[in-house]
Structure formats: structure tokens, C-alpha cells
Specification:
This protein is mainly alpha-helical. It contains 9 helices and 2 strands.
């Protein structure tokens, strides 16, 4: 996504939502719920990461309960540190294989990224962050999202990391 933004001059407006909430609202489920599809998908994610030069290491702590992490993102959206938070959490899960189910590990990861883990924990537990995440999840479903990653270019929806070429074409158009 950052490479597409750099090439196109477009900006991406990250909208944190709760994937489990989207699944529940749309009747969808994680591909890992189908064993053969889950095994294939994990291998395919590695191929896509290699193609794009993105480090990817399957996290032995997966699945990770991302509720608090996503509340943190929703609470930080539009504030300084948001992108650093997103990058730190993503890398911790999919590059560094950290146990982001553990609040102490989350705090360490955030402090290492130059963020105040305790302050972000307070933000994540605030009523404002909870409401922001709920609202963003509902808006995503209303727009047609059924999983992640989902991209909207105007009203046109694109789903999946394997559709980034379509995203870039839509931006160019």
C-alpha cells in the first residue's frame, strides 16, 4: 500500500474495523476455518509477501484476539502516532511473531516503536475508542466489506491483497 501511494500520489485513509464483527454481520468466516483452504492460504500469503519484498513469518500465537489492538487503532486514528502504531502492531504479529495476546508484550512492542504503551492502553479502553471501532465496523459492513483487506476507490470495492493491481488501476483512472 505505501508503494502504491508513493507511485500514484494517492493517500490511503486507513479505517480500522473489527474483522470478527464484519464476519459476524456478513455471515463470513476466516479461511482458516476450512482446514485445506487455511493450509493453502498460509502458503499463499508467504508467496505474496515474497513477491512484494515484505517479511512474513507465520505467528505461532495465531489466532490473535485483536479487539484491544483494533480499539487502540480506532482511538489513535487521526492522531500523531497512528501510522507508527499500525506498523508496529503489524510487524509484531506478521514479522516478529510476537504474542500480541499478552498486554505486557503489546506494551513492550509499542514502547520499542517510540509510543507510550500505557497511554495507548488507556485510549484502547476508552468509551470513545470502543464506539469508534464499532462505528467503523458498521460503516465497513454498510459499504459492502466482508473481510480484510478491503479497499474503496470512490464507491468501487476491491477485496484482498491479490487485488492491489486493480486498486492501483482504479486510482490511475
Amino acid at each position: 500500500v505505501p508503494e502504491i501511494a508513493a507511485r500514484s500520489g494517492a493517500t490511503f485513509d486507513y479505517q480500522p474495523f473489527l474483522l470478527g464483527g464484519v464476519f459476524k454481520a456478513t455471515g463470513n468466516s476466516s479461511p482458516v476455518m476450512v482446514p485445506a483452504k487455511g493450509r493453502w492460504m498460509l502458503g499463499d500469503l508467504g508467496r505474496w509477501a515474497k513477491r512484494h519484498g515484505t517479511p512474513f513469518n507465520m505467528n505461532p500465537n495465531f489466532p490473535i484476539n485483536t479487539l484491544t489492538l483494533m480499539r487502540g487503532a480506532a482511538g489513535l486514528k487521526g492522531k500523531p502516532g497512528f501510522e507508527r502504531y499500525v506498523d508496529a502492531v503489524f510487524d509484531a504479529i506478521w514479522k516478529d511473531r510476537e504474542n500480541m495476546n499478552d498486554a505486557a508484550v503489546v506494551a513492550e512492542v509499542l514502547y520499542a516503536a517510540g509510543l507510550d504503551g500505557a497511554a495507548i492502553a488507556e485510549i484502547a479502553n476508552s468509551d470513545e475508542a470502543k464506539a469508534a471501532l464499532k462505528d467503523a465496523t458498521e460503516r465497513a459492513v454498510e459499504r459492502g466489506a466482508f473481510g480484510a483487506p478491503t479497499f474503496f476507490i470512490g464507491d468501487e470495492m476491491h477485496f484482498g491483497q491479490d487485488r492491489l493491481d486493480f486498486v492501483e488501476e482504479a486510482i490511475a483512472a
